[in-house]
Description:
- There is one protein chain.
- The chain is an alpha/beta fold and 758 residues long.
- The protein has 23 helices and 26 strands.
- The strands form six sheets. It has an eight-stranded mixed beta sheet with strand order 5-6-4-3-7-9-10-8, sandwiched between helices. It has a six-stranded parallel beta sheet with strand order 19-20-18-17-21-22.
- Strand 1 (2-4) and strand 2 form a beta hairpin.
- The longest helix has 25 residues, at 80-104.
- The chain is globular.
Amino acid sequence: xxxxxxxxxxxxxxxxxxxxxxxxxxxxxxxxxxxxxxxxxxxxxxxxxxxxxxxxxxxxxxxxxxxxxxxxxxxxxxxxxxxxxxxxxxxxxxxxxxxxxxxxxxxxxxxxxxxxxxxxxxxxxxxxxxxxxxxxxxxxxxxxxxxxxxxxxxxxxxxxxxxxxxxxxxxxxxxxxxxxxxxxxxxxxxxxxxxxxxxxxxxxxxxxxxxxxxxxxxxxxxxxxxxxxxxxxxxxxxxxxxxxxxxxxxxxxxxxxxxxxxxxxxxxxxxxxxxxxxxxxxxxxxxxxxxxxxxxxxxxxxxxxxxxxxxxxxxxxxxxxxxxxxxxxxxxxxxxxxxxxxxxxxxxxxxxxxxxxxxxxxxxxxxxxxxxxxxxxxxxxxxxxxxxxxxxxxxxxxxxxxxxxxxxxxxxxxxxxxxxxxxxxxxxxxxxxxxxxxxxxxxxxxxxxxxxxxxxxxxxxxxxxxxxxxxxxxxxxxxxxxxxxxxxxxxxxxxxxxxxxxxxxxxxxxxxxxxxxxxxxxxxxxxxxxxxxxxxxxxxxxxxxxxxxxxxxxxxxxxxxxxxxxxxxxxxxxxxxxxxxxxxxxxxxxxxxxxxxxxxxxxxxxxxxxxxxxxxxxxxxxxxxxxxxxxxxxxxxxxxxxxxxxxxxxxxxxxxxxxxxxxxxxxxxxxxxxxxxxxxxxxxxxxxxxxxxxxxxxxxxxxxxxxxxxxxxxxxxxxxxxxxxxxxxxxxxxxxxxxxxxxxxxxxxxxxxxxxxx
Length: 758
């Protein structure tokens, strides 16, 4: 805990040797000394009639938060000239209106001509008001701010430079936020050709160059430049093909076309890029981002420091492979080529992948052994996750069998005609199946997921982005290599991409222009995080697998313990494992109930009692904290219900619409349960573990969906397809079908073409 003015605040470990900039965004959270440059467009309102008070208040709040974390924050602010210009314009209008009123008796504002205002006078008029506003805002957070006005001479004169440096260091030592601006009231106009001339010289001609010079002079870790554009684009923002550049490297400026400068202020994007590159060369990391967008300005600075993908990050370290955006574009192009292949060719790719899984099993198991050893040494995975991470010969054989099932049933998936209609004479309409586009599948600790999902994407003609957990990196690498080897037989290697960069899941979920569907495979927490982070991209999946088994009064003694044991104990970490056992009240204190309890004890299943069950017992197991719990381990909850109707109501209230089972010999009771339970999978006298794409005969699954739109339950090839409409006409126009037109709608259903069932 550090203290200043008797106000304690937490510090975080923020220290590094200055001299080299951060290589990756994820490292920005370690930045201790940060300069935030606020452009004129950020500080002033859009109508140029005052300061953007709400925006400034939000920026001050973020800077105060970072300051109170133990960071050393500095602000380089624009806005004095623009603010002063607005103040002087109002003063001139007011004085002119008074003079005209005295001479003519009326105000003729429409005839007033406002003279061109000299920039130095505007700066003198605006500087005091701007600083007064900053002081008032920082005071709300018990933080002191200090103003420093500089000119180019303060950096070129050695004594002045040392004085400036000493003053800034002393202010930072006292937990004061320095607010720096060029002294535009006295500074001469910039020389036409005075620009960047190497790492040791930079002309302070605007606040962009001032911020860069200050950042290097003070050995700053991070420079954040806020403007009115999202960052640096590969062509002027607003043009049709403009794309935001996520990471900018020295030398890339040759491929960039710069647009005009901002609506207010002196600098433009070209000046910002030159200043940023100069600061980067001096060892300071730089991010250029939008400080005016109402949806992100309230957290743009903190997001940047947290390493989120905001704006353009300047880095000297160029990655060996493509960026994730490039990978998504490659996957889309590859997916379109894949969809254009003949069905037999797509099936051939999947058969080849199945063969490789068995032919290369030794290499796969060796890579998996590395992952297991690293996970065990680091102790970062629980036992259920270690089981998911582990591969074996039997698992690989099962994978290969599943892939061959996918290949066999994929021949008639893409391009299948679902509906044919004769709309009118010689006007025929068809609805056909097509791929969704680019899928992003994010999975944890399950390397066997990679070939399964890849095969389903290949069969459905979709491009695929895969993001696996780092705990399975060696396994994922070799499995992806084998997948691309199989794809290469028909020249579509790029259709399946494995994301190896340091992309955060939240950043991937923002690529709404590149990704069409996100499918998470992992813990309920992972799924919830992805559903929360996804911006404009649909997410297919389930956040929890709270599966129930209801034991009815008419249940068979032989079936009950077998089904419950298999549902809970066969693979307790699976999302389709039993979590809550519902027992009919009449079965309590019966031999059947005793058999259930004895079996669970033998299997070392920890029992949690529901509220009603606990009320029947003198000495009950630990009472459950929540009836809506997914244990993912050898634990389960037991609760008592009075009827099948109450069992259904309990499932609807506490379940997750995943998989629910009834055990009974009464067909009428079973049918009531099957028809009334509103879950993706509802079974009668069968284990919850059957809720699986492979066991359903789908070959494999990309996941189990509990949503009510598009796909539900285990999602195979069909769930990765959508449709499009094909209309074939002959000079047809809508006006021919008007009241007095020559044509009439027929809307006749036509027979579907025969499906290929070979």
